[in-house]
Input
Amino acid sequence: MKILRLILGDQLNSNHSWFKNTDDEILYVLMEVKQETNYVLHHAQKILAIFAAMRDFKSALAKENHQVIYFKINEKSNQQSFKLNLNTLFTQHKIQKFEYLEPDEYRLDHDLKEFCAEISIPSECFSSEHFYTHRTEVNEMFTDKKQWLMESFYRYMRKRHNVLMSEDGKPVGSKWNFDHENRKSWKGEPKVFEDHRLAHDHSELWNEITEAKIKSFGNHNASKFRWPLNRKEALKHLDFFIQHILIYFGDFQDAMHKDETRMFHSLISFALNTKMLSPKEVVSAVEKSYLSNQISINTAEGFIRQIIGWREYIRGYYWAHMPAFGEQNYFSHQLPVPNWFWNGKTKMNCLKYTINQSLDEAYAHHIQRLMVVGNFSLLVGINPKSLHEWYLGIYIDAFEWVEMPNTLGMSQFADGGKLASKPYVSTANYINKMSNYCEGCHYSKSERLGDKACPFNSLYWNFFITKAGQLSKNPRLAIVNKQIRDMDPNLIKDIQSQAKKIIKNIEDI
Ligand code: FAD
Ligand code: DLZ
Ligand code: SF4
Output
């Protein structure tokens, strides 16, 4: 039987059982298509990295004697849509069966199911063999629960997959979570490692992308284009991280600095999300490092929690709530994304540095995404869906299944607090504690009112004052709610008018 198998741009898993044998009757297809490049405005590096990694994957498959069809973006025969190209291939190659791997995004999952129902040949969908959990596992665990507690899912995962567990069934180190030990700011020591990742020359590919008139934004210079583009590079990078950097990850996980964009983060999200690396091999490498006494339990636990905890939980949350999730907007926020989100031109240092870095590298670490950009967006009331499109476009690792729950749920409280037990917002105090952004900022971190006052300081209080109806019963907000109740009514008025002014002049702050 002649079979056509589709591989999507984020399904570059060379260890998949599909590839265990070579069979002349099986044709693989990968496609660079405008359908995928244009559904949001993407960072140039994201398009480059996905195309380059797909091309590399195609060559590796061909070397292993698999039959591979590849549509480059400018090929005449490329109709720029999965369905159109597939239908043509079915006829051209007399295909008798169509097979594909579970797409991680609802949109494509839905489209491909619809497509399979329309075509006249049989079809089958296979697991991507990447995640620990199946799509509905998290949902099954939290059915009927008002609050989805990541911590209980995480403990379940540790036990189920026997990760960092003692023989007596207790967690290694006698504690499940060492998070409170992971909250240091960074003052220049220990030194951050040189970026050892390869700078890829991609000028030819970039010419093809511009010739195809694909719109993009952000820096595409080769010196900044250092993402691992195949499994070999990804493994080398992972090994370097575990040998040299991981030891500092936990301590400085939340730290931010004007001169250091990577700090002690792993930068493995692109390789993981495109499935060049498997979460299991990452976890097992970290566990091995702990067992050979190279890292402490709090470092190992803290990092492993991100992978078997957050990453799997976020994915389960996505599948449990799609498609309605994309429309959630608990606070009815309607402000558009400010223009300076696209060029970094703002006087607010924290946002200026974070956005410029994101434009430059297609990367910002978790706290920059959550407590700088997300914090500000929630406080001013940016429309969650528009913000989601911005995040989906700008970050190298942004695929909807992981980006949307992080943006809408964790960062913007758009689901009314199902994923996050309280809104992640702060005044300048937190940003100043965790970074050096406030040094030399146009605004004063300690002032709340007046032209020089840090916008976060009035926006924060204004947020809780105006959202009192929706947040006053939240037990985790008892302190802030009491502070507002005790506040001088004149101060409340001043704060609100200051915040209003900031929001009105948002393009000029
Ligand atoms: P590290 O800090 O080194 O962490 C290691 C790994 O843990 C990451 O590579 C990632 O796979 C996993 N991880 C950590 N936190 C999370 C989390 N909250 N959700 C899922 N996985 C997590 N992550 C994405 O992979 N894609 C996204 O599009 C994305 N969008 C985000 C949007 C917002 C608003 C926020 C607040 C977070 C987002 N995250 C996203 C989660 C997190 O910020 C990134 O996974 C992380 O910054 C990637 O960099 P790293 O590989 O250096 O991670
Ligand atoms: C993100 C992306 C881009 C920019 N381009 C392509 C492409 O041309 N071909 C492809 O197969 N995949 C691409 N992708 C990744 C897909 O959008 C991804 O597979 C879905 O988001 C499903 O997670
Ligand atoms: Fe950001 Fe305010 Fe600090 Fe400036 S003073 S860097 S705007 S937190």
